[in-house]
Task: structure prediction
Amino acid sequence: MTTEFLPVSPAALFAVSVPALVASDFVNWRPGRYLFKPLAALAFIWLAVSLDATATAYGRWLLAGLVFCALGDLFLMPDDDRSFLAGLGAFLLGHLLYAVAFLQLPANATGLAVSAVPALVLAAVVLRWLLPHVDVPMKVPVTVYTLVITTMLLCAGLTVGHAVAWLAVTGAWGFALSDIAVARQQFVHKARANPLWGTPLYFAAQMMLAGSVAAAVPQ
Result:
């Protein structure tokens, strides 16, 4: 697939837009958020498409997940509860679609066994820390979202032994850990430090997941 009509590569777009987004959020410059967040999301979708994501079942499911995550990014740009819920729903679907993508590959039971303990421990620790800070109407959605993240991590473990594994597993865990920054900002304590580390981790994780489509075997 040609991208000659575009002036920069996905990696270059990522390298410019993500630091600019972090800086914009740090100084609370909202026009910067509305400019650079869509560009940062475009970078990971562009990367997957440029790597012929549609050539494999793995790539098609993963690309669908990337699209929903990009929608989640757009929904989270405003600071209001309705937008947050819409973003939460979009990211939940993104996690599920990633899990389905991982299941397109022959499963590795050893990888699942190795990933099970850290994934379940992470879920338990996060819920124990987070739920006391969450209002009652949001406790069930937050719990469901955490369980979906855990499912994605377990499915990522099933890819061990395949060429996509190191990018898929690292990207899945980076995505999951970046959600902690979002949760802390939304429910626990609003601080400039939360997006300072959570935002670059999130977009780097999405780039890793997008890049993993290059290692999938055509089907």
Remarks:
- The radius of gyration is 17 Å.
- Residues 165-188 form the longest helix (24 residues).
- The helical segments are 10-26, 30-50, 57-75, 81-102, 109-130, 136-157, 165-188, 193-211.
- Residues 149 and 176 are 6 Å apart (CA to CA).
